[in-house]
Design brief:
Elements (H helix, E strand, L loop, with lengths): L3 E2 H8 L2 E3 L5 E2 L1 E2 L9 E4 L16 E4 L11 E3 L3 H12 L14 E2 L4 E2 L4 E2 L4 E2 L4 E2 L4 E2 L4 E2 L4 E2 L4 E2 L4 E2 L4 E2 L4 E2 L4 E4 L4 E4 L2 E4 L6 E3 L4 E2 L4 E3 L6 E3 L4 E2 L4 E2 L4 E2 L4 E2 L4 E2 L4 E2 L4 E2 L4 E2 L4 E2 L3 E3 L4 E2 L7 E3 L8 H12 L1 H17 L1
Parallel strand pairs: 4-5, 5-6, 6-7, 8-11, 9-12, 10-13, 11-14, 12-15, 13-16, 14-17, 15-18, 16-19, 17-20, 18-23, 19-24, 20-25, 23-26, 24-27, 25-28, 26-29, 27-30, 28-31, 29-32, 30-33, 31-34, 32-35, 33-36, 34-37, 36-38
Antiparallel strand pairs: 1-3, 2-7, 21-22
């Protein structure tokens, strides 16, 4: 949608309108860059002084911040959540494909629902089932016997291997690979013997997966991604990983095999998580966390050394490298003090 009346926007957002409802909104912008045809939002009252200099045509804010606003406003309880819904209403992103491109290759043994769209050079193999309103972008490959639920969109050049299950209303960004072999090998006197990965990948409903992320198929059991999970760009999800409903995984995360993550967890960017263990529901791992042991209690967990000036970091590193010697000297002092 390229434009909308403020009154109509308020109605769709279930917001309380203050000011000119006939104002035409043509876009959304930040408070410091918005102009008269755009709407912005104030999600933190600490920045309410910016309302005095804001040039936006309208502002989304709370009732507490309304007295400080000199423009038309939409009053809501949660401005940031309203911003998300407002962005969905005004989103002009084109679909990954429209209709079925002449160059798309579709097996006669595939089943396509109503209003399916396939981009140029997409390949749909035998036994594939695509639900209603599925959109497959240009250059995608959908392997044999894979099932994709209604309303799911794949952007260009997504590869989905054989026998994969993807739920409804999912969004998968370009370059992602789902169902590649997990890293399974046995060693025969120094030579690696490949273990065929016989499981699959099961992805629930309303899952979003970022660009260039890889989700490996299971070795014997399946790799499972629960409903409502969001995974950022360039993540590695190894074989037999299970991620619970509504967990969020930020960019660059690496998960080793047979890891089980609970529901409503948040995994910070560039974290590395060991395999063959469990993380409980509602655990939060901050960025660059190195998770080597199970997490059994909800809470916030961190590891690593925050960025320091190089000179300070060198001193910190030297102390860490000598911590065993420092510990021995401390124990010797404690024994001496104890004798005295």
């Amino acid at each position: 949608m390229s434009s909308i009346r403020l009154a109509d926007l308020a109605q769709q957002l279930d917001a309380q309108l203050h000011g000119d409802g006939d104002l035409v909104i043509t876009g959304i912008a930040s408070m410091h860059s918005a102009h008269s045809g755009q709407i912005t939002f104030l999600s933190n009252s600490r920045y309410r002084e910016q309302l005095a200099t804001c040039n936006a045509g309208a502002v989304v804010l709370t009732q507490a911040d309304l007295p400080f606003c000199h423009t038309p406003a939409l009053v809501v309880k949660n401005p940031y959540l309203t911003y998300a819904r407002m962005a969905q209403i005004m989103d002009t992103t084109p679909a990954p494909a429209q209709d079925i491109a002449p160059s798309a290759v579709v097996s006669p043994e595939a089943s396509l629902g109503q209003n399916v769209a396939l981009g140029a050079n997409a390949v749909i193999e035998s036994g594939v089932v695509l639900g209603d309103n599925v959109v497959i972008g240009a250059g995608c490959f959908i392997g044999k016997n894979t099932r994709i639920g209604a309303g799911t969109w794949l952007w260009a050049n997504v590869t989905v291997y054989h026998n994969i299950e993807i739920g409804q209303q999912c969004l998968i960004q370009s370059g992602t690979v789902i169902g590649a072999d997990g890293f399974g090998y046995a060693n025969d006197r120094g030579n690696w013997v490949k273990i065929p990965q016989l499981g699959t990948v099961q992805i629930g409903d309303r899952v979003e997966i970022g660009a260039c992320t890889t989700i490996d198929r299971g070795a014997l059991d399946n790799t499972i991604i629960g409903n409502g999970v969001i995974i950022d760009n360039q993540c590695q999800i190894a074989h037999n990983v299970v991620i619970g409903d509504n967990t969020a995984v930020a960019g660059g995360v690496i998960m080793a095999g047979s890891l089980k993550i609970g529901r409503y967890c948040q995994i910070g960017g560039a974290s590395v998580i060991n395999g063959h263990m469990e993380i409980c529901d509602k655990a939060v791992v901050t960025g660059m966390g190195m998770v080597m042991r199970p997490i059994t209690e909800p809470g916030v967990y961190s590891s690593g050394i925050p960025l320091q000036a190089n000179k300070t970091w060198r001193k910190t590193a030297a102390l860490v490298m000598n911590i065993d010697e420092i510990n021995k000297r401390l124990k010797a002092v404690e024994r001496k003090v104890g004798k005295d």
